[in-house]
Specification:
alpha/beta; Urease, subunit C, domain 1; 429 residues; 2 domains; 9-stranded mixed β-sheet
Length: 429
C-alpha cells in the first residue's frame, strides 16, 4: 500500500500541518516537502481528528440481516468518520460465547472498512439470570473487554455484582442499559410527563434510569470494578454520575447524538421514527446532557445506531420497534450542537468521539493523538459544510433516520484507516 500524505489540515484545532502515513503508522507531522510516491489527500480548510470510535453500535448480524449487516453497517460507519465500532451483543444468536464473538470479529475483518470489536453479553441469552462466558470471550481471538445486555437491563443486583467482580480480574467493563423494568413497565414507550399523558402513551419515568445508575455506581464501588452507563438521558443521571466520579468510583458514561439534540415534543405526531430507548426527554434534560458532555461528567458520544426494517418500525407508535440510525450523522450533529453552540472545540470533539471511547473500550490502536508513532487512523472534517440529511442516501439497509430533512453544519470529508482512505465525500472510496 502506498504512503498517504495529508496536506494542510488543522490537526484537531491545533493549526495546519501536513501528515505522512507509511505502513499504517504516522511517520511525520509538520511541513513535509518530500513524500515521493505517496498518495496525496488535500486537507486544506479541513479539521483532522483521530479516527472516530463508536462504543455502541447495533449491526444486527447474525439474525436480522434484513435490517443491517456487518458489511452495510461498516460502510455507514466509514462514511460517518468512524474507524472502529463496538458491535452490541443482542443479535440472534446472542454474542454470549467465544465462538459467537469471533464470528463477529471475522465478519468485520472481511468487510475491511472499520475495526469491528464485538461486545459480549453479560448473561446467557440476555436473560439476566446466569453469567455468559465472560472469561472465554476475553481469552478468545476477539479479546472482548466490554460486556453488555443492551436492550435489556441487568436488573438483578446480585447478577450485576457478580459480573462486575468477574470483569475486574482482567480489566473489563460492564456497560449497563439502565432501565428498571418494574418502574418502566413493559409497554412504556415515551417520557413520562404531561405530553405522554395527553397522547395516551405509556410513560417511562426518569427515575427508572436514575435508580439503576445509582445502584450500579454503588456496586462498582463495592467491587472496585468498572461500570459504564450507556445512553444517559436524564439530568438526574448526570447528577448521580457526577457524584460518583467525585467519590473516585470507576464510572464512565456516554450520550447519544439524538439525546443531545432531540426533545420529547417530537413524538406529538406519533411518528415511530422518534421512538427510542431510552426515550427522548424534555429540554431541561437535553441542556443538562450538553453541559455534562462539555464539562467531562459524560465521557463520550456513542451513536446507539439501531437500524430496523420497515416492517418492524412502521407501526402504531406503541407497537413500533425502538431505535434510530446514527452512524452517518453523529459527527454532524455534534458539530452543529456542541461546536457551533460553543460548548466544545475540535480538540473536545476528538476527546469525546475518539480518545475517550477508545480508552473505555481498551482499543489501543485507536483514539491516539495525531502524532509520530500513532496509527494512521484519522477523520477529516469540513467544519463549515452545510448538509441537509436525506434518508435515501444512507448506506445502512434501514431508513429509520430521525435527521431526515434537517440542516446540519459540519460534515465528514474523508475517513482513513491505517493509512487507507475508506470513505470520501459521503461515499466509499
Amino acid at each position: 500500500m502506498p504512503a498517504l500524505l495529508v496536506t494542510g489540515a488543522d490537526l484537531a484545532g491545533a493549526g495546519a500541518q501536513d501528515l505522512l502515513v507509511e505502513d499504517g503508522v504516522i511517520t511525520e507531522v509538520g511541513r513535509i516537502t518530500s513524500a515521493r510516491g505517496a498518495d496525496v489527500l488535500d486537507g486544506e480548510g479541513l479539521v483532522a481528528l483521530p479516527g472516530l470510535v463508536d462504543l455502541h453500535t447495533h449491526l444486527r448480524e447474525p439474525g436480522r440481516e434484513d435490517a443491517e449487516t456487518i458489511a452495510s453497517g461498516s460502510a455507514a460507519a466509514a462514511v460517518g468518520g468512524f474507524t472502529a465500532v463496538l458491535a452490541m451483543a443482542n443479535t440472534t444468536p446472542v454474542t454470549d460465547t467465544a465462538e459467537a464473538a469471533e464470528r463477529v470479529l471475522d465478519l468485520g475483518r472481511a468487510a475491511g472498512l472499520v475495526d469491528v470489536q464485538p461486545v459480549g453479553a453479560v448473561t446467557k441469552g440476555l436473560a439476566g439470570e446466569e453469567l455468559a462466558e465472560l472469561g472465554l470471550m476475553r481469552r478468545s481471538r476477539a479479546a472482548v473487554s466490554v460486556f453488555s445486555d443492551d436492550g435489556h437491563c441487568v436488573h438483578d443486583a446480585r447478577v450485576m455484582r457478580r459480573a462486575l467482580e468477574y470483569v475486574r480480574a482482567f480489566g473489563g467493563v460492564v456497560s449497563q442499559h439502565a432501565q428498571d423494568p418494574r418502574l418502566a413497565g413493559r409497554q412504556a414507550c415515551a417520557h413520562e410527563g404531561e405530553l405522554s399523558g395527553r397522547l395516551g402513551l405509556p410513560g417511562w419515568p426518569a427515575v427508572a434510569e436514575e435508580s439503576i445508575v445509582a445502584r450500579d455506581v454503588m456496586l462498582a464501588r463495592h467491587t472496585n470494578s468498572r461500570v459504564h452507563i450507556a445512553h444517559v438521558s436524564t439530568a438526574g443521571t448526570v447528577e448521580v454520575v457526577r457524584w460518583a466520579k467525585a467519590q473516585g468510583i470507576a464510572v464512565t458514561a456516554e450520550v447519544t447524538p439524538h439525546h443531545l439534540a432531540l426533545t420529547t415534543d417530537l413524538i406529538a405526531g406519533y411518528d415511530p421514527t422518534f421512538k427510542v430507548n431510552p426515550p427522548l426527554r424534555p429540554r431541561e434534560d437535553v441542556d443538562a446532557l450538553r453541559a455534562a458532555l462539555a464539562d467531562g461528567t459524560i465521557d463520550a458520544v456513542a451513536t446507539d445506531h439501531a437500524p430496523h426494517a420497515r416492517h418492524d418500525k412502521e407501526h402504531a407508535f406503541v407497537d413500533a420497534a425502538f431505535g434510530m440510525l446514527g452512524l452517518e450523522t453523529a459527527l454532524s450533529v455534534v458539530s452543529d450542537v456542541m461546536v457551533r453552540g460553543g460548548l466544545l472545540d475540535w480538540a473536545g470533539v476528538a476527546r469525546v468521539m475518539s480518545e475517550a471511547p477508545a480508552r473505555i473500550a481498551g482499543l489501543r490502536g485507536h483514539g491516539r493523538p495525531l502524532a509520530v508513532g500513532s496509527p494512521g487512523n484519522l477523520t477529516l472534517v469540513d467544519a463549515s459544510a452545510q448538509v441537509t440529511v436525506n434518508a435515501a442516501d444512507s448506506l445502512s439497509l434501514s431508513r429509520n433516520n430521525p435527521w431526515h430533512g434537517r440542516p446540519l453544519t459540519g460534515a465528514v470529508h474523508a475517513t482513513v484507516l491505517r493509512g487507507r482512505v475508506t470513505a470520501q465525500k459521503g461515499a466509499l472510496a
